[in-house]
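Practice problem: predict the structure.
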Amino acid sequence: MTNSSNQRMNDWNVEHWQMSTLCLMAWDFLMIHVSYFLALWVRFDCLYSAIPENYLSSYLHFITIYSLIAIVFFWVFKLYQSIWRYASYVELVRTIICSLTASLAHILFITVIFGRMPLSYYLWGSIVQFIVLAIPRFSYRLLLFLRNDKRTDETAGRVMIVGAGQAGQMLLRDINSAVELNDKAVCFIDDNQNKWGKFIDGVPIVGGRDEILLNVEKYHVSKIYIAMPTASAQDKRDIIGICNETGCELKQLPGMYQIVLGQVSVSAMKDVKVEDLLGREPIRADMHEVYDMINGKVVMVTGGGGSIGSELCRQVAAHKPKQLIIFDVYENNAYAIQLELQHKYPDLDLVALIGSVRDSRRIFEVFDEYRPQIVYHAAAHKHVPLMEVSPCEAIKNNAIGTYKTAYAAMVHGCERFVLISTDKAVNPTNIMGASKRLCEMIIQSFDAIIKAGKADQIPQLFTHFGMENADKDGTGSVFKNIKTEFVAVRFGNVLGSNGSVIPIFKKQIEEGGPVTVTHPDIIRYFMTIPEAVSLVMLAGTYAKGGEIFVLDMGSPVKIDTLARNLIRLSGYKPDTDIKIVYTGLRPGEKLYEEKLMAEEGLKKTDNDLIHIGCPIPFDTDEFLQQLDGLMSAAYSNKKDIRDRVAAIVSTYHPEHVPVTNEKENKYSKMVEGDDN
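Answer:
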């Protein structure tokens, strides 16, 4: 067969919906004839010979014309475009209106053109017409309902729907109409007492959230679907917490937009994630301000391959920078985010560079060539237990690396420098937190000295001398008109970041346990990676220089509770299927983290969940001089590095606990909440 023949055959292929429409039209055409003939036949005692000639003649001459006009009318009013497996009262009302309107037209035209017909002809013809129109349209829906009603407890997934509002009703309709599902909704839960004891399509509303556990047992529920897109985060957290105790399969509707788009279905339900248990609304950043700041600028992200850094790169790339520079010491991560962004943004001017923030010659080379206008400094060692074992590395990479990068940014015309900090910098008991507090102090020192017009008095720290010397000509011209704004962003632990507690717990659960928690009472503040990145980017728009931005992260979460919830969400029972083992606090670890030092006051920003901590006054000149000696001590791997840091950071109170290699191995397996 030739290609042209194949093409002609393809042109004549009829889609399934087209065939269904044609069949429905044919049914309507035939049944309209039948309905009015039956009305006439019944009127005269079901005897064809008893029908008067004038009535029969009027019927025969008018009915075909009327049927064709009615079909056109039904098409205009979309009786052939609906998906009848999802037919509801909306389609029923439309069918009634169309049938009634067509019947009135039938009465009018046959009477005017051919003469008056018997009253029973008009009445019963209209009624039978509606019935025969509705039968094919709603019979499939009825069969699905009867099929669901006959499902046995052994074969059906028995579903509790939490939320008897619009979303819950739409979800129930999908469950009842979905042939491929083997689910049966057995009860609703809703906190609105006015709904209790009532039914939706035969499914009872049995009570509020306090009745969840009781009715799961009463109705033998195996699945719980949460359909509350407009509920607050706190309410969702509480309800998910209760549902989590049942051991049922748990899913929820992600958002309100699905109701707007009419996409509420079982397939749209998502697994409940552990971040849904945080109990606060997500940060809603006004990204228009971020767009105005980034659009057309050269942006550099240090540590750009990490969990925070890579998300920064994604969001920066989405805001059309002139150029994006990914700077990371680990080539695999940098390469991965480079490939991802090249695929998603083929027109983006993207540069991926390998190097360390500790190497001032490399940093100066990069700044000299690319001249970034905005720098997000995410490069850092972040794991508390590993840094306790190697404290000098925390100082070299975090504090000195930040200093060198900030200095290079200052003398190369950078407009904004945003430091990624952590709540562990507040009253630190570990060297990682202390090193991040040093970073904050470095940022505040740079800002204060620049505003005082004394940028040339900021010492440049060297571990080697050479091309990175800022004042090469000795004239000091490089320090004139310095306008770099330095800010820090402080937030808590990040869910899902590299080395964070959630991936570790998940891996332990996959291996059958045990799940290791350091202490039953240990608590942490948590946020998601997109929230953290939104805050970092907003900091750049709010920056006036010297601020420490702090996120109001809501209530802290017990790590023990987090572990137990994650076990339940994985389909297991804590302490029964998966054991939880308490290993004890590690050196430098606190039971709780603080978001702000007591001495720091809070100022509001345009976002109610983002605050600014007022800088704590300290002698910047003395601090910068001390850093030089601290750098030398770190590079000499001095054993007393903690004491030297404590002499600079007054809020640092180290625990002098000897650390062995055996402990180092244990710590590396039990990293918990060390996410930034």
